[in-house]
């Protein structure tokens, strides 16, 4: 499977689309808003008069969240200028903003561009002037000219790898009962995923350093782990382990060939904070200005992360299943065929519901704010 061709969220704006099932990602962006605002204000103040600030969103996807970054940056600068006027500080330098929205070529860029009219209405009375362009391509490749970008932003994207580890993608059935890292995954396979992650993140940092202006900033948010334990109750491994079990149930019913299941592995890795720090330190191109971990319930409709009890496990299971389907439907469809989708996610919803009866499941989410070294 060509990851760059099939790794994208479910297109369109229908019931099972990413556009209709991306509230988790919206909550993460709003949670990290103060970090982003701090980076924007610092950059804005540092730029000379009549310059252009270039901002790139890596892994923008499509739907209501896609233009949230644009709105947040414009709003932050507009509010900063208003405060300066009220405090009778010198007027801010005239500036324009150039936004680049990046994702893989399979992303629904048509939906993104159709939503620009709505954004223009929301920002009609705000300044500075801004321009929006699409930038298709993998963020594990060069995307921009040297020293051309002031701020990189990426939310809910960097846990996706550039590829499945080579040893798994060549047809070696080393991880037969799992599609990622599950209870039965051998230590050797875990090591393959870890090594792929280390290579990818180091490459990503090097590419972005070359594209950033001197002292440029990055704000990165992605699924991670709180500890070395890969299989804590609520973390990403458990989520994918349940999907593997749902696929296995279809194998037992004769709806899916076993060979299809054992040859399917996700290009995904959720790192621990220590793993992230280790790669950044070894890469030695960025200073860490901020790093934190917060949690978000699996159920995108559940905003109470303090209560560990799920009151409506059945409805939460359905909510989680819709959310995960919007993320992996293109990959599932390519590898297993479209016919199993409804059955698979019905079974998955039931399994998630049972899982949530033990305790509420929460994703650990890592936020990192980096500045390029001079």
From TrEMBL:
One of its GO terms (biological process) is methylation. GO terms for molecular function: metal ion binding; S-adenosylmethionine-dependent methyltransferase activity. The keyword Metal-binding applies. Keywords: Magnesium, Metal-binding. Gene3D superfamilies: Methyltransferase, alpha-helical capping domain, Vaccinia Virus protein VP39. The keyword Magnesium applies. PANTHER family: S-ADENOSYL-L-METHIONINE:CARBOXYL METHYLTRANSFERASE FAMILY PROTEIN. This is Jasmonate O-methyltransferase. It comes from Triticum aestivum (Wheat).
